[in-house]
Design a protein that fits this description.
The chain has a single domain, classed as Hypothetical protein af1432, CATH 1.10.3210. Helix content is 55%, strand content 0%. The protein is built from 10 helices and no strands.
Amino acid sequence: MPLPLPPTPVPVSQPVDTSPIETTPPNGSDLDPIWRSVVTETRTRGNDIHLPVSLAYAERLCAAYPQADALLVRVAILLHDTGWARVDEEKILSEGFAGDWRKAAIRYEHEKQGCLIAQEVLPPLGYDDAFVMEVCAIIDGHDTRHEAYSLEDALMRDADRLWRFEPMGIALASGWFKMNPAVYTDRLRAEIIPELLTEAGILMGEAALDRSCALLKTAVLR
């Protein structure tokens, strides 16, 4: 059962790993059957980069919050953006990353499609209906809801955002938003870090963003 969400940012009492994410790739092979079921769905919108990196962040966050249901968080982050593969690809950038992008209809649609994919791939792999419903409850609204409803939901939402602070995330997403890296990293610091829901996520995001800005020389290349 998902744990109710404490006041945000959720405080952390465990050590927080803020080292570069490539030092701790996703752990183990237990989710490999799910990965194999959604290879096609990972080939849209850079998800073959976004999803594995976000899973690595999800596992770090779960280590910082051992009371959370780690399997629920890990499966939800793996599947959360697969729905982009089933929407109009031309509209992904024209509507999903422009204007009031958080309210774009295509964002609601990709959440709906992600839930349908979860319902298709998880039961044949042995996941029961109750677990699938919990996964779908997190996927549904992960971009369009302002609040998380549980600790697991918060951890997945933070993991979804944390990949953006890495150089590969900045390289991809700055292009989607038609910004140069310096402007985009300014936006990350001003808008996205305040959206993070956990103390551990904030520490990880700030450390990764500082490293990326130094590496990309955003203070100079403006």
